[in-house]
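User: histidine kinase, Dyella tabacisoli:
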Amino acid sequence: MSFLNSNAWRSTTSRLIVIYGVLFAVWGLILVAVIQWETTRYLNGVIDQMLAQRMHYLAVTDAQRLPATVDAASSIDPHGIMSVGLFDSAGHALAGNVDRIPAELQLDGQVHLLNGGMPRPDRVAGTVRVRAMALKLSSGNVLLIAKDTSTIDGLGAITRRALLWGISLTVIPGLLGGFLLRRGPAQRIRELQLATAPIRQGDLTKRLPVSRRGDELDLLAGIVNTMLGEIERLMNEVKGVCDNIAHDLRTPLTRLRARLYRTQQQLQEHQPQAALVDACLVDIDAVLARFRALLRVSELEDRHRSACFGEVDLAQVLREVHEFYMPVAEDREQPFELDVQPLPPVRADAHLLFEALANLVGNAIKFTPVGGRVMLRASMDRHGPRIDILDSGPGIPADERDAVTRRFYRGDNSRTTPGSGVGLSIVSAIVRLHGFALDIGDAADGARITLYCYPVKAGEVPGTCLARTVSA
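Assistant: Predicted structure for histidine kinase:
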């Protein structure tokens, strides 16, 4: 769940929201830019046409009446957006509301944009851009007409503000809507994640939840459920075949052992034949032990047994294991230490925990040389109780730690040691049944096997080697 929360904005819905938001902003900017450019071009054309008409009217006015006409033209502009001026050939003002001719304005009778504004006595210079034109008359005087672009600039500002409001009024509801849309898939994924927890622990009878929406997640869940059903069927078939083989072969092997035992009793005086029969009995016992171990693993893989779990005192189970194996360790001159710190009870099966710990301690004693050291230690870590079995034996190579929990696997260090190779398979099945975790690592001078007696986190596979750093 924490993974989902930390990666919420990496979801497909969140990415679509961001993509659509960026596309809307980009196209909004382009649209507003086009609208503003077309509007400005149109209004500039209107102003230029108006200036040209007035210039033509004033230019054909009688020279004697022109100064009075210019003054009248400037006085009938109450808002001060029109500038009209008449200047002599030396540039001195003769009439109008303009002080001087701007240096950047050409006397060609064409409209020019003056970003520096028009110098007038009634306003601060350079405050408003203007479009102006100046024409040298036949009398040598210069006629100047200009109009402020405040209307165009104001319209552009209104357009830009409208864009900002439009983006904000679209993005904010979009983010809120996206958040609400994202919550649905995120909740569904959390449900799927919780549903996969027992499947990851080996319970193939579980299925992913499917809603009535019929969306992509439901299609994916349906595909996974179909796959799980097929895997469960194949696993049950394989398990059934193995169990049937174990059952069917165990009966004739038991009869064969009984006959060999009777033959052994009759051949006591014939030593060579009796020794041969003894060897056959040993081999048959080894095969029967393997079949019993296979059936035991199959029994433990039936997860319905977990319904009978109860509160178990780990310290008591550890003391029983220590007491049970103490004589064996003493016969091998191995100091067998028990270190148990106060532990809370765990929900488990006491007999199965004893069996798992007995297997682990038995292996530690068996593979530790005579005079070596074995230690059974229980403590609390950040999440719950943990049990460490430490020994001074040869240890388990790192490349074999994932394989030793498989059935009948025997590493290079154990091929010459008696055993069936299913002890750790039984331990692994018990660990998976409880939802605990098993970790195989190195101790200071040997091997370390740690049993974490609490449910494992998402992403950790119970019953196999975990990537945890655990001090010995």
